[in-house]
Amino acid sequence: MILSQFIFVPLAAAFLIALVARKKENIAAWICMLASLWLFVVSIIAFFRLPDFGGMIMRTTSGWKIPFTIPLVLDNLSAFMLIIISLIGVISAFYALQYINHFTGRWNFFALFLLMFTGMNGVVLTGDFFNLYVFMEISLISAYSLVAFGTEAEELEAAFKYATMGAITSTMILFGVGILYSFTSTLNMAQVGEIVQQIAHKKLVFLVFGLFITGFGLKAALVPFHAWLPDAHPSAPAPISAMLSGVLIKTLGVYTIVRIFFNVFGAPPVVLTILMLLAVLSIVIGGFLSVVQWDFKRMLGFSSVSQIGYVVLGFALGTPLGILGGILHLLFHSIFKSLLFLNSGAVEYATGERDIRKLGGLSQDLPVTSTTTMIGTLSISGIPPFNGFFSKLVIILACFQAGNPIVGFIAAAVSIVTLAYYLKTLKHAFYSKNKAKQILEKVPITLKAAMIILAALCLVSSLILIPAIRNATVKPIVDTVLNKTQYIDKIMPYLGSI
Amino acid sequence: MTLYLMCFFLFLVGVYGAITKRDLIKIILAIGIMGYSINLFLVLIAYRSEAFAPILKEGVKVAMVDPLPQALVLTSIVIELGITALMAGLAIKIYEKYDTLDITKIRRLKG
């Protein structure tokens, strides 16, 4: 029962908004807020109740046995992703209450927001390849529309670019799913994993690997496939940018890569090598392209490319320490990147300007925003005691431990570059002497509250590194990713015939 | 085998169109062609030679086609409809703003 809520509640809320809240847009905002809050509470309950159910809760729709039904599977990794989605979701919804007043047709925004929520929860929960594709398309179509929400020329252009690339690679993923079905005769992830291990002629599987790496790699914005991200993420309204950069690329990209290649296909070494190559390329190219950006949000977009490289690098190492680093950086990056996007939104709200050359001396006019931006900067560039330091340290140590010192050096060096371009932004926008820009509007209290909560989380989430808390929360997730047969073994007993 | 190769050729036609064409409408059409080729592929997977429609009858055992991919094709057609409609809507709005459908002239974002 608890599993269907994650899909049912946001979907029902989205349709409720479309039905009743067209004229009364404040109701739409509150329905959205309540639904996200509900999901946040339920996801936390699900995470902490999971050990009582032996680490996996499974629900088959309409009571059929596995090959004939679509199973919803909640294990440690899914529960962890659900918490991230609903944490950033609830804060973005809270931020959007006031922020979205600039726009017309606000109920559309909240309905699309909840549909994106539905899609992401579905991707995380499903245990079926085709269903994964369907939920992915739900969240992507809402994301395309939300990128174009302002209907300015640049936003439409970015949305079209995103939609083109997303549609091409979604087709490739469907092609891969078709090939998998043609030689396993099932769409269930666990069953596909088991049958693929027994098949002698595996050449076709490598075609599937290629299609999936391209498809999900584009969703995660790894470097040869990153071109849409710096356009699409800055074009969306700030709470959506926070959602896209903080959660969407991780759910549709990183989570699916980890689930499919680690749990279903058992982490084939050739895939890990390719992923590591793509990750290092992302770290370096994303990092250096950020340095030359003068648009605040565009810089954050390129920085997302670089940081997602760190996350994938951690997983691609395939060692326990590397996966720990990947999981931690996934959580921490979603917190501080959302914080930075919300900050950029607050600056835009107050001054109407995104070019950091035209901003200046905002630290006196916007004390809260400048402080939280400082905290976000320190976190993302890895200054202790903020959370980014610990996850990057774990990843870099894992590189050395796994016998890849060159990769470790690259990761550490680009971390310094990260500090450089964030300090550039901070200096130009907030702490320079010249005051070029007038404050048009005050930043409302709800925007400040959302930013302060995330800034506090930047500090508090470092506590996960304390061994006792780490063993209770993160270690089961690492085991889930690391154990190549656990996912399959736990689902197979549910197999049955008509 | 020939059928599968022709289906893959159709997919490549779609990819070629989506990559090389400069007109927004042609890009949308090319993505549509990619989608059709995948739908065709899914139906081809389900095909069994000299088989019947998958309806079970007591005591009768005949070769049947696989019904699942046909259900998948229906779903994927609906999804493609949604994406095509959205992209066509975006193209109309872009035409209003830029007065052109040529992607070499729609370049206000610097890559």
Class by alpha and beta content of chain A: mainly alpha
Helicity of chain B, as a percent range: 55-70%
Quaternary state reads heterodimer
The tally of domains of chain B stands at 1
Largest sheet of chain A, order of strands side by side? Answer: 1-2
Shape of chain A: globular
Which structural class best describes the helix and strand composition of chain B?
Answer: mainly alpha
Number of helices of chain B: 3
Uncertain parts of chain A: none
Kindly describe this structure.
The longest helix of chain A is centred in the middle third of the chain and has 32 residues, at 153-184. Chain A is 75% helix and 2% strand. In chain A, helix 6 (153-184) packs antiparallel against helix 8 (203-220). Chain A has two domains: 1-264 and 470-498, no CATH class; 267-465, no CATH class. The relative contact order of chain A is 0.10. Chain A contains 20 helices and two strands. Chain A has a two-stranded antiparallel sheet. In chain B, 66% of the residues lie in helices and 0% in strands. Chain B is built from three helices and no strands. Chain B has helices spanning 2-20, 24-46, 68-98. In chain B, helix 1 packs antiparallel against helix 2 and helix 2 (24-46) runs antiparallel to helix 3. Chain B starts with a helix and ends in a 13-residue tail after the last helix. Classes of the chains: A mainly alpha (498), B mainly alpha (111).
List the helices and strands and how they pair.
The complex is a heterodimer of chains A (498) and B (111).
Chain A: H1 2-20, H2 25-49, E1 56-60, E2 71-75, H3 76-99, H4 106-125, H5 129-147, H6 153-184, H7 189-198, H8 203-220, H9 229-235, H10 238-264, H11 269-291, H12 296-317, H13 320-351, H14 362-365, H15 367-380, H16 387-401, H17 405-429, H18 445-460, H19 467-482, H20 486-491
Antiparallel strand pairs in A: 1-2
Chain B: H1 2-20, H2 24-46, H3 68-98
Helix pairs in contact in B: 1-2, 2-3
